[in-house]
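User: Hello, can you help with two protein structures?

Assistant: Certainly.
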Amino acid sequence: MSALDTPDDSMPKPELLDLTRSMELVQAYQAGDAEALNDLFRRYEARLRRIVRIKMGPKLRRFFEPDDVMQDVFVVAIKQVEKMELRSHASILQLLSKIALNQLRDKADYANAQQRDPARERRMDGNSQDEDSNSGLVLPHKGPTPSQIVRHKEMEEIIDEELERLEPADYREVILQREYFDEDWPAIAEALKRPTVAAVQELYRRAKMKLTKNVRPRLESTR
């Protein structure tokens, strides 16, 4: 890990598990082991939830919870995972994120159509249940008790909120690609249309400095 990739001590980076196990799970699912897909999704659930929350923005979160979107993503992903070749953590996160963006576009259209119906919005708030809840996919249990995770969760939420509003948009995207998707530099340079790896690394450096500046006062106020 280079100095550029070393996260600020006050800004925890989402963690991923061993890639080899993820590859084994993809292969097992493609060979007919349905439970392997649930195991695979559990490995990426926490990071994908953060990505979805950032992509949703505050407007959509008035209508939907990130978990609503994630359940839809997992349902759509079933057939696509059957065909995918997992080469990195980024490949599955990019796949799930792409599906999520399509779902969010649909939900944004729906939310816009509901804005003239305040009573319906109140009924939807926090009470909607996914129609595909019997799909066989099981979102993982959160694990630790609320008292054990509250501090870390607060930090993550602050970071995600500041990243969501970080400008320009390329600053948000380079951090998402590098720290949330775990993408490599050449792929990020291509995605962001930067001429060289050095150019995209400089973009990342500036983005990280600005995000850290915005985040640090809020983190310090919670101590």
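That covers the first. Now for the second protein you mentioned:
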Amino acid sequence: MAKKKELTSVADKLEQLEQLQAIHSKIDAIHILKGELPIEVADLEDEIAGTLKRVGKVQAEITEAEEEIENRKTLMKEAQGLIVKYDKQLLNVKNNREFDALNKEIELQKLEIQLAEKKIREANYTIENHKGQLEEVQKRLDSKEKDLEIKKKELNNIIKDTEKEEKELNNSAIAMEAEVEERFLLAFKRIRKSYKNGLAVVKISRNACGGCFGFIPPQTQSEIRTKKKISTCEHCGRIISGVDDSAVVISEEEMA
């Protein structure tokens, strides 16, 4: 690991932090350009995956119901065949005991047929109901897939346009961070995380902090101009690297 370059001047350290902030602000601008698209794309992909899983489950239940119908039809056919067989046997019974036993078997097969008919009706209802669900789900799925296609295309276009720049900026940020004094780097990162705009290093503009716009007294501004120490805003804690003289000129009387 390369040894950090030692900077003895506070002004140099402030300039280094300014440069680091400028790099990160450009990276932040690219992220803002992407907006919520990465999250929206990920959410849509998860939603579509979940919907497809649900579709697969419903289709499996339809297949199961169709198999149930075929099995019950087979059982009905077998039961009907047995009834015919037992009816023929009734013509040759020798006693009441055989007669009653055959009638009992016939009744059992009739009950089997009734049960099969009930199960077939239930299975047909399941199929009809599930197919209706699939139609509705498919419509929503088609809509979500179209939305995903549009958002992915938009995001990919942004990535294509900014990928090279973002990569260069990230490399520059890593290189710059390797040069910044550790305590200042930790403070920089901590402050950046505290604010949505990611501004950790700002200048005074129009007598106010460039981050929170809190008023900075003229005497404090005068001290900040000397760049003899690292100063922070008493309102928001951001590092103040200097005064933007292009925005406001403070008179000697104001500084007195």
